[in-house]
Amino acid sequence: MSRPQQASALYDIPGPQARRRHFFYGLASTAVILGLAAWILYLLFDTDQFTAVKWRPFLYEGIQELLLEGLGNTLKAFALAAVLSLALGALLATGRLSDHRPVRWIATLFVEFFRAMPVLVMIFFIFVALKVQPLPALVAGLALYNGSVLAEVFRTGVHAVPRGQGEAAYALGLRKTQVMTWVLVPQAVRAMLPAIISQLVVALKDTSLGYLITYEEFLHAGKLIASNLDYDLPFIPVVLVISPIYIGMCMLLSWCATWVARRESRDPRTKGVDVAPAAPVITLPGRE
């Protein structure tokens, strides 16, 4: 038996005609997507992209080792950039939430500047002008940009917590640091988690910019393999190998976020506590 739908202030329950329209919209969208996929597959088969000769090089041990080495370098750059981005974002968000106006202005200027700068420009500037090695240059550029974006995510998440939560904590005599650490941030993390994971996915994909500064990451390995193959359109089989791995890593990040959210919901500290019913009130004689 289906559960009856409940009305929402932001969503009207569709009626019979609207449900029929949505059904036909879904069918039409599915047909378009299937048609596009069929057309792409036709082009791949028409250009002989699935012939054995074009996929045999991926069975060579040297090419497999090159891809694995590039994948390891990509994961290394992403891990460093993710940790530094989260730390920098937390630091900048703390500065933007500070009660001291100079600290708040400096943090705001830093965030707005590096959030507006293109990632590739920062990476090239650090690599060429500052003469930094490829890995530190790539990690620094990713950390500055993504850290600035995450600072806004953290600040917005803290402001999204109902105002009464902080006021109640201050009424209990807690200091601002205690209020942020024990009251506001734990509640804000749940709302911020999807945006944090989305930004980390962006950081993971942006590691591919490393091949422009000769960092031997995953895309650089694929480009090196494709440039040494001696048949037509060598990049297509390489892309068909590399793309699913990138997609799989991004999906793994999303799965980790879902797992963390479910674990948070099962945490006994986040569940309500049963309150004993109030005892009956005993009235004094003559007070009824």
Tell me what the structure shows.
The chain has 288 residues and is mostly helical. It has ten helices and no strands. Helix 3 packs antiparallel against helix 9 (218-227) and helix 6 packs across helix 8 (176-206). The longest helix is centred in the N-terminal third of the chain and has 36 residues, at 61-96. The radius of gyration is 27 Å and the shape is globular. Mean pLDDT is 83; it is low at 1-10.
Broad structural category: mainly alpha
Strands, count:
0
In DSSP terms, counting alpha (H) and pi (I) runs of 4 or more, how many helices?
Answer: 10
In whole angstroms, the N-to-C terminal distance is: 51 Å
Principal-axes geometry comes out as globular
Put the structure in a nutshell:
With 288 residues, the protein is mainly alpha-helical.
